């Protein structure tokens, strides 16, 4: 699914661009994946796990997302650099078509600039425009209070818990919380 370009100002006055990924975004995205995975324990992968991502694979991934009727991916660019991304996935199965799953990640250098909020506004808009979608869902790791605050601000509420869903390298186990936002249409 292709999303039109969205230009918006950051809190610090810089301009950001939110749009569907292009082939030219591949190198920046590969760097972003490694950097974001090393900045926090709350990203699902470790930096060394990013070696499986290749330019060719990312290009194919972008093409699949952009051509899909059930997926949309957006990248956020600031000063030409990938600052973050987000995705929404709609279920094709009849019994699940009322649900959409979302995910978001942002580099630390761009926290507190309004990017996460703007990404969620766009994901919510996309979900509301999809016929029959009644709720959006996401998951976050225990201790990720910054993300939880953003999600709650955007109308998501905790509805469930997966105990010990994440195991860190040091052996520490983290719960994973499930959140849902009911869409008013």
Question: Could you explain how this protein is built, in words?
Answer:
With 185 residues, the chain is of the alpha+beta class. The protein has one domain: Aminopeptidase (3-Layer(aba) Sandwich), CATH 3.40.630. Helices cover 28% and strands 34% of the residues. The chain contains four helices and eight strands, in the order ββααβββαβαββ. The chain has helices spanning 26-39, 55-67, 115-129, 145-153; strands spanning 6-9, 15-19, 71-78, 81-90, 99-106, 135-141, 157-167, 173-182. The protein has an eight-stranded mixed sheet with strand order 1-2-3-4-5-6-8-7, with helices on both faces. Strand 5, helix 3 and strand 6 (135-141) form a beta-alpha-beta unit. The longest helix has 15 residues, at 115-129.
CA gyration radius, whole angstroms: 16 Å
State the secondary-structure class: alpha+beta
Give, in order, the helices and strands: EEHHEEEHEHEE
Which spans of ≥5 residues are poorly predicted at pLDDT below 50?
Answer: none
The count of β-strands is: 8
Summed up, the domain count is 1
Question: Helical segment tally?
Answer: 4
What is the overall silhouette?
Answer: globular
Question: In percent terms, what proportion of residues is strand?
Answer: 25-35%
| Name of the CATH homologous superfamily | Gcn5-related N-acetyltransferase (GNAT)
Question: For the largest beta sheet, what order do the strands appear in spatially?
Answer: 1-2-3-4-5-6-8-7
What is the CATH-assigned architecture? 3-Layer(aba) Sandwich
Helix content: 25-40%
Task: Give the mean pLDDT.
Answer: 95
CATH topology: Aminopeptidase
* Major β-sheet annotation: 8 strands, mixed
Give the N-to-C terminal Cα separation: 21 Å
């Amino acid at each position: 699914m292709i999303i039109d370009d969205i230009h918006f100002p950051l809190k610090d006055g810089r301009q950001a661009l939110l749009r569907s990924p292009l082939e030219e975004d591949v190198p920046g995205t590969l760097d972003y994946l490694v950097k974001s995975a090393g900045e926090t324990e709350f990203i699902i992968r470790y930096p060394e796990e990013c070696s499986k991502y290749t330019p060719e694979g990312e290009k194919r991934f972008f093409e699949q997302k952009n051509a899909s009727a059930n997926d949309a991916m957006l990248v956020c660019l600031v000063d030409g650099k990938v600052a973050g991304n987000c995705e929404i996935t709609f279920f094709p199965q009849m019994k699940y078509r009322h649900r959409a799953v979302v995910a978001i990640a942002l580099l630390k250098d761009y926290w507190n600039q309004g990017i996460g909020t703007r990404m969620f506004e766009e994901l919510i808009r996309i979900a509301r425009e999809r016929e029959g979608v009644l709720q959006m869902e996401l998951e976050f790791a225990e201790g990720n209070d910054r993300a939880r605050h953003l999600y709650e601000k955007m109308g998501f509420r905790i509805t469930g818990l997966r105990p010990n869903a994440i195991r860190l390298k040091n052996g520490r186990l983290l719960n994973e919380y499930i959140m849902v936002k009911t869409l008013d249409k």
